[in-house]
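Structure ticket #2291
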Amino acid sequence: MPKNREALIRYRIINRLLVNRKYASLKEITFACEEALDKAPISVRTIRQDIFDMKNNRQLGFHAPISYDYYEKAYYYAERNYSIDRLPLTEEEVDALEFASMMLEQFKETEPFNHVRGAVEKIMEHMKIRKALANDNYRDFIDFEKSTAPGGGEFLKVSINAMKKKKVIWMTYKSFEKDHASTFLFHPYLLKEYRNRWYIFGYNEDYKEPRTYALDRILKIEPESLKTFIEPKFPPQDYFSKIIGITRTKGSKAGKVKLKFSRLQSNYVLTQPLHESQQVLEETDEYTIISLDIHDSPDLTMILLGWGSEVEVMEPPALRNEIKRIHEQSADIYREKPIVYFDLDCVLVDFQSGIDQITEDVKQKYENHFDDVPGIFSLMKPIPEGLKAFHRINKKYDCYILSTAPWKNPTAWSDKLEWVKNHLGQAAYKRLIISHHKELNCGSFLIDDRDKHGAEHFRGKLIRLGSEEFPDWEAVLKFLGV
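Resolution: structure written out below.
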């Protein structure tokens, strides 16, 4: 018999680490046990004794094939598929079914088949706890995670039958992103569960490619007897082998994702890996860098965003930029007023009015680059509709002037400053930004007549004045709701 209930929990944690991570060091095992038991410190000697007992204690009956790899400096199971969960039940463990029945109460109102897999896993997870609990009232000190049944359970049986018999089906489906449902021919290959929701993976004839659909968004399934079933070109499980979650970004290829975690978050990621491909590249007292060999996916993005500042995406650049963009947009949401940037030339300033006031000789000298004419910006008049729009928008938004000054025009910088002072006054006090890299500024909107000087990479919404979407100021004001 186990010495105490804490030892039993430690055995479960050691087993889980060796099954999920393949390798686990003494440090990682100790930290995981301290976290689970909310007790620190747990001595290395205790963990070593636990490993010895799992290997040799006849009363436990584990006979765990735990070995030590001196190169990895970590423990591992010498038998690849070994787990203490796979041991046959003893008479004593059969008593634990009474304990498990209490857990199954939460599923009594749900589709039974929908959660039988989860129920069995929970029984296995808690089977040996029964030994340590004796006749105590379990509810007094164990609070199981409550499971709620998602929709779509009524389609499980028909989906499984179609897969077993290799039958084509008509599926009517309504995604969250669309206002209307669509019906298409579908060749079902695999059911997959993720975060308490069922998904069906198969071949969509309309798109002529494999796709994944959530059962709770299916409206109807009907058989199609005349169509020949299209066999999968690869084992369906392989589609998900390098994905975190249920979908992957279209066109993406599996590759290295490099993540840097803070000291605190490192402990969680090391003891509960994100993916089976996870490898530790660098580990210090301040941070840990890991790599994953996976596809980019929406679920990966959501997980990374959930860690906030505790994780930094180092590679690939596209994922790093996407996480950065979302964080910046999120920060802007929490501002008291969203930020709107205004370009000057041809947005607030009538550039042609400046050209009209220079001599013909100067026009000929600076033909095709009038913005290099010294003093030209001091001659320009405002666009009345632009000024009115600025003051209206400024009542609801936090407004700034974001303009580019010609590098070779020595007076352009000071001329633009004087223009802002004269025509916008206090409304634009210390709100003029001169930059050739507009994409470096964070905000919700940029109103510009061109997509040059970084405007095309602005991380908010580029309002292109004069475009088909925003042909005039009236369209801009309507879009901004002012």
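Closing remark: Residues 5-21 form the longest helix (17 residues).
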